[in-house]
């Protein structure tokens, strides 16, 4: 995997490399799968309400992610910095990082949830919601806004744990969260027993209850006396909070140098990336929504299926990010390269399996969400395009994880701007309308976007400049 001039010392055995990667990756992959299942379960159960219900829920996805863009970018910085401090053996700085992240995440998430609640109607109208389901979409979105602070804090705490390689913690929180979400989806959407029939509002409320439970569990992990990340560790706080004793003036000043500046260095570029991605995804969804309710519901279903396949790549990406960051902190970029290439190999194997499942099970997979023949027929065709992109998507997600773990988020942001914010929406409009490919055109544009991001991320990783970034 390495050239002779890249080797800086003793290298781990191949078996140990895969073992370490697997140890972090499988909980992350399962966690990502469970998070994606929330959307899938909501979509399947809401689909029982009739035509338009799936579109009402689906149209809220990208607006929600736009509101969470700052949280996602903050968490990328927290994971990268925590991993680097872990590799350096600096436990105190790692604890400072998670504490600062909690405060920032709380403030940002409350602000975003209030804005989303107040401007739900205009936001969803711009997103392309049709008048036939706009009222349901607004109801769902407003109830969903109550989950944003809980979800954000849960994600932030787990981002810090991931940086330390503790991926089982976030997996556990999401297992419990999903169980709660599914139970209340069943009880509240159609009204079971003495529970009221709340329709799409019931699905959003179930998601909120699940997010609240996940937050409580993840918060509890920071009250373990022997935990690497723990409130019992003497790391202080950035400033005085209620009855919590503030750190010394020197400790507070060190937050700026050890925590805030490194987080901002990574998160600022990551935020630009998130903005470009979310604008691109938002425009992409809005263009497709204007094709009609049938086409958009088909798109939502196929994206739900595709998202489930992404989970395996996301798990590998999280493992790559943590292991790359930790070994850069330990001054072993050669081992970081090994873990990056290990992730690529595993990504290829997994994508081969996903490809076969999509090709041979495409009609069955779509039929799990709806019984409408037109949607199943169109969706089966779209799933062929989804299958063709599995190799590109899984590999580029792992490579991007390596770059993020190293703090090379500026490059990733540039690629996202070109590919997601410009190329994908423009090609989608061109292929859907002037060329007349309809929904197929949108998925061809998605395939081209994935190809571009794979080529650029592979080129950057192979160049090695990411290994020289200081945090």
Explain the layout of strands and helices.
Blueprint (H helix, E strand, L loop, with lengths): L13 H33 L6 H6 L2 H7 L1 H20 L2 H28 L1 H7 L7 H11 L3 H16 L3 H22 L11 H21 L28 H41 L3 H37 L3 H35 L5 H16 L1 H16 L3 H24 L6 H25 L8
Quick synopsis:
With 471 residues, this protein is mainly α. It has 17 helices and no strands.
Outline:
globular
- Element order: H for helix, E for strand: HHHHHHHHHHHHHHHHH
The major sheet is characterized as: none
Q: What percentage of amino acids are in beta strands? A: under 5%
Spatial separation of the terminal alpha carbons: 26 Å
Indicate the structural class. Answer: mainly alpha
Provide the residue-averaged pLDDT.
89
Backbone CA Rg: 22 Å
Using DSSP, what is the number of strands?
0
Number of domains: 1
Helix percent band: over 70%
Low-confidence stretches: 241-246
**Number of DSSP helical runs:** 17
Task: Describe the model.
This protein is mostly helical and about 475 residues long. It is built from 17 helices and no strands. The protein has helices spanning about 15-45, 55-60, 60-65, 70-90, 90-120, 120-125, 135-145, 150-165, 165-190, 200-220, 250-290, 295-330, 335-365, 375-390, 390-405, 410-430, 440-465. Helix 16 (about 410-430) runs antiparallel to helix 17. The longest helix is centred in the middle third of the chain and has 41 residues, at about 250-290. It is globular and about 60 Å long. The two termini are about 25 Å apart. The model is unreliable at about 240-245 (pLDDT under 50).
């Amino acid at each position: 995997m390495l050239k002779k001039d890249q080797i800086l010392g003793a290298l781990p055995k191949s078996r140990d490399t895969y073992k370490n990667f697997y140890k972090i990756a499988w909980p992350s992959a399962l966690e990502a799968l469970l998070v994606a299942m929330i959307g899938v379960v909501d979509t399947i159960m809401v689909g029982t309400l009739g035509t338009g219900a799936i579109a009402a829920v689906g149209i809220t996805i990208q607006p929600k992610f736009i509101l969470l863009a700052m949280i996602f970018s903050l968490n990328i910085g927290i994971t990268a910095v925590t991993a680097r401090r872990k590799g350096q053996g600096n436990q105190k700085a790692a604890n400072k990082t998670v504490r600062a992240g909690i405060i920032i995440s709380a403030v940002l998430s409350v602000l975003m949830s209030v804005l989303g609640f107040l401007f739900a109607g205009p936001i969803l109208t711009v997103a392309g919601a049709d008048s036939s389901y706009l009222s349901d979409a607004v109801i769902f979105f407003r109830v969903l806004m109550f989950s944003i602070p809980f979800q954000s804090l849960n994600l932030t705490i787990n981002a810090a744990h991931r940086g330390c390689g503790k991926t089982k913690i976030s997996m556990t929180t999401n297992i419990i969260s999903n169980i709660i979400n599914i139970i209340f989806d069943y009880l509240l959407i159609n009204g079971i027993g003495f529970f009221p029939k709340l329709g799409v509002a019931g699905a959003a409320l179930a998601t909120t209850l699940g997010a609240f439970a996940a937050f409580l569990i993840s918060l509890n992990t920071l009250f373990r006396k022997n935990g690497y990340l723990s409130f019992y560790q003497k790391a202080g706080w950035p400033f005085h909070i209620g009855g919590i004793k503030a750190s010394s003036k020197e400790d507070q000043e060190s937050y700026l140098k050890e925590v805030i500046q490194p987080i901002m260095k990574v998160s600022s570029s990551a935020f630009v990336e998130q903005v470009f991605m979310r604008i691109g995804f938002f425009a992409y969804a809005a263009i497709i929504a204007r094709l009609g309710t049938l086409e958009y519901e088909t798109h939502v279903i196929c994206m739900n299926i595709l998202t489930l396949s992404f989970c395996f790549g996301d798990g590998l990406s999280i493992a790559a990010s943590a292991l790359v960051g930790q070994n850069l902190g330990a001054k072993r970029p050669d081992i970081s390269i090994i873990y990056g290439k290990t992730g690529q190999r595993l990504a290829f194997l997994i994508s081969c399996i996903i490809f076969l499942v999509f090709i041979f099970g495409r009609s069955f997979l779509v039929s799990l969400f709806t019984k409408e023949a037109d949607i199943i027929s169109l969706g089966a065709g779209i799933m062929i395009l989804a299958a063709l992109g599995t190799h590109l998507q899984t590999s580029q997600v792992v490579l991007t994880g390596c770059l993020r773990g190293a703090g090379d988020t500026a490059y990733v942001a540039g690629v996202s701007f070109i590919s997601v914010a410009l190329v994908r929406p423009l090609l989608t409009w061109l292929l859907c309308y002037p060329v007349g490919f309809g929904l197929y055109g949108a998925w061809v544009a998605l395939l081209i976007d994935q190809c571009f991001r794979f080529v650029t991320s592979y080129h950057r990783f192979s160049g090695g400049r990411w290994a020289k970034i200081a945090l």
